[in-house]
Amino acid sequence: MNKWLQCIFVLIGVLHSSWVFPDSNLVIVLANKNIPSSLELADYYMAARDLSSNQLCVLDLPITEEMTRSEYENRLRDPLLKFLRDKKWIRQKRIKSKDL
């Protein structure tokens, strides 16, 4: 992930937390464990916004700018949803295909 993409994640967090949700308890910071600067940036942002360490979701993402659909599902979507479920920040309901 290049510096621009890292900056976009931080910018989204800033905009999201500052304007949309003034309550910093509603912010989640994502970091890529495979890029040291991503972790440093996440730590810096969390310290600047006085965020709790339980709001940090460290993911095992590729270091490239792009990922396959399978990588997205297995390395980003599913681990992020598990993180949110484990923290009890979301509830999900399974829908049977016949109900769609």
> How many strand elements?
2
Rough shape?
A: flat
Strand order of the largest sheet: 1-2
In sequence order, what are the helices and strands, one letter per element? HEHEH
Mean pLDDT: 83
Low-confidence stretches: none
How many helix segments? 3
Q: What is the beta-strand fraction?
A: 5-15%
Distance between the termini: 36 Å
Tally of domains: 1
Computed Rg:
15 Å
How is the secondary structure organized here?
Elements: H1 3-20, E1 29-32, H2 36-48, E2 56-59, H3 69-86
Parallel strand pairs: 1-2
Describe the structure.
- The chain has 100 residues and is mainly alpha-helical.
- The protein has one domain (3-99).
- It has 3 helices and 2 strands; from the N terminus they run H-E-H-E-H.
- Strands 1-2 form a two-stranded parallel sheet.
- The longest helix is centred in the first third of the chain and has 18 residues, at 3-20.
- The chain is flat, with a radius of gyration of 15 Å.
- The mean pLDDT is 83.
Defining traits:
100 residues; mainly alpha; 3 helices; 49% helix; flat
